[in-house]
Structure formats: structure tokens, C-alpha cells
Amino acid sequence: MSTEAAATTTTTAEAPKTPLAKLTARLAEITTKADYKEMWGVELDVSPDHIPSQVVLQKFLRANGNDAEAAEKQLASALTWRKTMQPGKLTSQQFDKSKFANLGYVTVHKDDAGKEMVITWNIYGAVNNNQATFGNVEEFIKWRAALMELGVQKLKLSEVKALIPDGGEDPYQMIQTHDYVDVSFFRMDPAVKAASKETIQTLSMAYPELLAHKYFVNVPFIMGWMFGAMKLFLAPTTLRKFHPMTSGTTLASELPTIVATLPREYGGKGPRLEEVGQQLAFADAAPMADKTEATKAEEPTPTTAAPVAEPAVLATTDKAEVATDKADEATPAAPAAAVTAAALEPTAEEAAAAATKTAA
Asked: I want to staple 351 with a disulfide (CB 3.0 to 4.6 A). Which of 19, 22, 341, 357 is the partner?
């Protein structure tokens, strides 16, 4: 065999064959171009033996249907975003108490086998003023990213010892609960819509494949048919992540292994969420900010509305499955039109119609 032929044979034999191997081979260049290598608390290592790094790459691959090229693009974007935003540092930053207190929590539970389950909670009925909470989109995204990052930290991805099984269940994911208590589903708030659109785009890019299931609780009975209609549009694997229920206490029946510590308002035997849930740090607004918000409060504005996403047509159900899986961390909206939004919005599987808090 000629030297040239031998070299060709060697090159072919050494070429990475699996999507994971291909992405791993590109990792050094990806992190060099981004000038950043931290992802979800993991310092990305080019060695295929570094399990935490491999798990991170697996998640980006899963979010892109095992397309190594697409996964590379998303990973590069996520690294660039993290370098700029520094979400890990945001978890220790103080946020405006009047805008964000009691809107989001993180809890960690253990089942009988000792396995930890991380839950992030979004309490939409706790929003007091849409303009104050959602009006400054950059501030809202920082708070939302910090809450997501807080949950991700609880997963301890830097300590994982095993890869995600090929074609199997991902053991390194969280549960997300969206509580719509005291929220109705009739009007749209422009401030919420604007904040939602950008938040969805950002978080779906930066946090793929981190949510195992999404529970929508205290959803009005009349809206239940919307979730049923989603079966006409979404793939079964995506639908299995959705769990709408009219009562918050029903959540306990969905999570029986952690009933002992699940908050009592969700059917568990533990303390109330506000007693055990971890929030981000808060501080009172600066005097000038207080004055600004007071002025805004005098203006007539709609009350609480959950985030909404702009629709974009999907070509196929398979594409919908991949695209919606990429939107695990999208800011969820009220399920009033979940069927329409979930079927049409490729970056927000739980997107829905506007919802406003019922007037007292």
C-alpha cells in the first residue's frame, strides 16, 4: 500500500463517527472562538473521558436531533451569552424586591431511594404590576436567567459520573411547575409579551434539555380542552412533558415519591412553598427607582399576565418535536392558547395566550 493510501486509511479510521465524538473533536475550537469554556458550572474539557463535559455536549446534541453542526452553533451561542451575562454570578446578585419577590422558587427533594429531584416554581399570580416586573426586559431576563441558573446548580452537573444513556432517559434534568392561581385568561399585556419573546429566545438557546416535565397547576377547567387539542400538533415525546391540572393539590399524585416534602398547597406533607423554597436575593429599590415605579403605578395598566410567544410556522411534526425540546427553559405562558402556540412556535413549547390576573 502506498504511503498516500495508508495516510488516507489512517485518517478515515481516526475520523470521529458519532455525533458526540464529532462535537467533542470541535470543542477546543468552539471554546477558543468564544473565549469562554464554562457551561452550567462545568469547565468544558476536550477529553472524551471527562464525563461532565460529555453530558453537556449530549444535551446540546439532543436539543438538535443529534445534528453535530447545529449543536455546535447553539453551544457557541450559549458560551458567548454566558461570557457576557455571567448567570452564575447573577445567582448572588440582589434583585428588586417589589418586582420579583415570591415569583420564583427552587426546591430540592429526595425520594425513598435517596435520589434528588430539583423543582423550579413560577408563581404567576404573585405579579403585582406588569409594567414594574416586565417593563425592563433586560432586568427581567437577568432575574429569570438567575432563577434558572439556581436550579441548574442544584443538578450538580460538574459532579456527574455517567453519560446520558443513548436513546434513554436523561437523569440530569429538573421539574418545572407553573402555578396560575388567581390568573385568568382573557387579555394581553404588551409589556409581558415583549419580555416573553426575548426571554424565550434567550433561555431556549442557553438552557437546552434541562427540564424533564412541566406541570401547569391551577389551570381553569374551561381551558383543559386546549391541552387535549395539542395532541393534534405535537409529537408524543413532547406531549409527555406536559401535565395540566385544574388543582394544585393534584401535583402530589404526579410526584408520589416526594410527597413527604412536597409543599402542602400542592398536595404534599411538607411546609408551604414560601417557607421552604429558595428564592434569589432581594433588596428594596433605590429611591429614584421607587419614584419611577410609583409614577408608573399611577398609569392605568393591565394586571398580571403570563408571558406570550410570537408564533412561527413549523414544517413537520418531527421538527416540532426537536424545536420544542430546545425550548425547555422558555418562559412559559398561560395555557389559554397552548395548542396554537405550542404547535406554531418553534422556540416555546409551552407558549400560550395572554393571561391577566383576576381583578380583586
From this structure: 341
> Is the pTM higher than 0.90?
no
More confident of the two residues 235 and 138: 138
User: What's the pLDDT score for residue 14?
Assistant: 66
∠ at Cα 125 (124, 126), nearest 5°? 90
Distance CA 205, CA 209 (A): 10
Three-class secondary structure of residue 356 per DSSP? strand
Q: Give me 353's grid cell.
A: 395566550
More confident residue, 304 or 206: 206
Residue 60 predicted with pLDDT over 60: yes
Q: Are 187 and 305 in contact (CB under 8 A)?
A: yes
Q: How far is CA 242 from CA 160, 230, 317, 353, in A?
A: 27, 10, 16, 16
Contacts of 58 (CB under 8 A, 6+ apart): 20, 163, 164, 170
**Collapsing DSSP states into helix, strand and coil, what is residue 96?**
strand
Which is more confidently placed, 303 or 127?
A: 127
Cβ atoms within 10 Å, residue 240: 11
Residue type present at position 356:
T
Nearest one of 244, 263, 264, 208 to 352, comparing CA atoms: 244
Query: CA–CA separation, 263 vs 108, rounded Å?
Result: 11
Domains observed in the chain: 18-85 (1.10.8), 92-357 (3.40.525)
CA distance 75 to 22: 13
Q: Which residues contact 71 (CB under 8 A, 6 or more apart)?
A: 19, 23, 57, 60, 61, 63, 64
Spatial distance between the Cα atoms of 342 and 223, rounded to a whole number of angstroms = 15
Percent of the chain clearing pLDDT 70 (strictly above): 69
Beta carbons of 145 and 183 less than 8 angstroms apart:
no
Measured from the Cβ of residue 162, the count of other Cβ atoms closer than 10 Å reads 10
Closest CA to 326 of 46, 74, 27, 52: 74
Q: How far apart are CA 221 and CA 80, in angstroms?
A: 43
As given in the structure block, the three cell numbers for residue 217 are 397547576
- Per the model's pLDDT, the better-predicted residue between 349 and 93 turns out to be 93
Note the pLDDT tens digit of each residue in 287-297: 544 444 443 44
